[in-house]
Design a protein that fits this description.
Blueprint lengths: L2 E10 L2 E3 L1 H11 L3 E6 L8 H9 L4 E6 L6 H12 L4 E4 L1 H4 L6 H14 L2 E5 L8 H10 L5 E4 L7 H10 L3 E4 L5 H11 L4 E2 L9 H6 L8 H16 L2
Parallel strand pairs: 1-3, 3-4, 4-5, 5-6, 6-7, 7-8, 8-9
Antiparallel strand pairs: 1-2
Helix pairs in contact: 3-5, 6-7, 7-8
């Protein structure tokens, strides 16, 4: 089972993707399932995910985007969506303006994520607001919550990302839009069991994002773990 951990649905300035369009890209690449969440800029809405689910419910795993600054309403949104079958949460500290390591801010969401057995995927390119030490801080405080570092800390913080994932069993490096060389390094250093593939569609050439993993592994078993096996295990599929 090939699973994309990271695709955006809906419309924002400069970007648009419907569920049907994503399903077509998945078909062309040979991808079975995709975790979907809305673009997170401005007044985003998780209702975009609901629309996509009506288009191709057999192909998508719904995730919600949350902004912790809205406080209790974010937790209420989490429970409302979890009741409807959502399986994960997308956080984007850079866009929403907070430090991922601010546990006082994030605790209500992370407590609820632990309670509802949800996966958390957070933007994790090299940026001071979502640096690898912040991921490590969450992993220490919430080891029961699977945590995906989107973009694997590239470029300036890639080594630190590998070190954090090595130290914390619940922390995985997600390789959307990460160059093939860096993917090969983190697989070599951590093993394929700690790397999760994602596309970051529509901000990519979808088929290339999937096919590049084949250039980074030394076995079909490793490729299948990175491209779906690890995420399927975390999702209980």
């Amino acid at each position: 089972m090939i699973i994309d951990s990271h695709s955006h649905i809906g419309t924002r300035i400069g970007s648009h993707q419907t569920g049907a369009e994503l399903a077509d890209r998945m078909d062309a690449a040979g991808v079975d399932l995709a975790c979907i969440f809305p673009h997170v800029e401005a007044g985003f809405s998780n209702d975009e995910v609901d629309v996509a689910m009506t288009e191709r419910p057999d192909r998508f795993i719904p995730f919600m985007a949350l902004n912790p600054w809205v406080g209790r309403s974010a937790v209420e949104e989490l429970h409302r969506r979890a009741d409807r079958g959502y399986r994960g949460i997308k956080l984007h500290p850079t866009i929403h303006g907070y430090n991922l390591g601010d546990l006082a801010l994030l605790a209500p969401i992370l407590d609820a994520a632990r309670e509802r057995a949800l996966i958390v995927i957070a933007h994790g390119a090299s940026d001071v607001l979502n640096a690898p030490p912040a991921f490590a801080k969450i992993a220490r405080a919430y080891p029961e919550v699977p945590l995906l570092m989107a973009h694997s800390g590239v470029f300036q913080m890639h080594e630190e990302a590998i070190e954090a994932a090595r130290e914390h069993p619940s922390l995985y490096l997600e390789c959307a839009r990460v160059p093939a060389y860096e993917i090969s390094v983190q697989i070599r250093e951590l093993g394929p069991e700690k790397v999760v593939w994602g596309s970051d569609s529509p901000f990519c050439d979808y088929t290339w994002e999937y096919q590049k993993v084949s250039r980074t592994v030394d076995s079909e078993e490793a490729r299948l773990l990175v491209c779906g096996g690890n995420l399927a295990r975390l999702l209980g599929l």
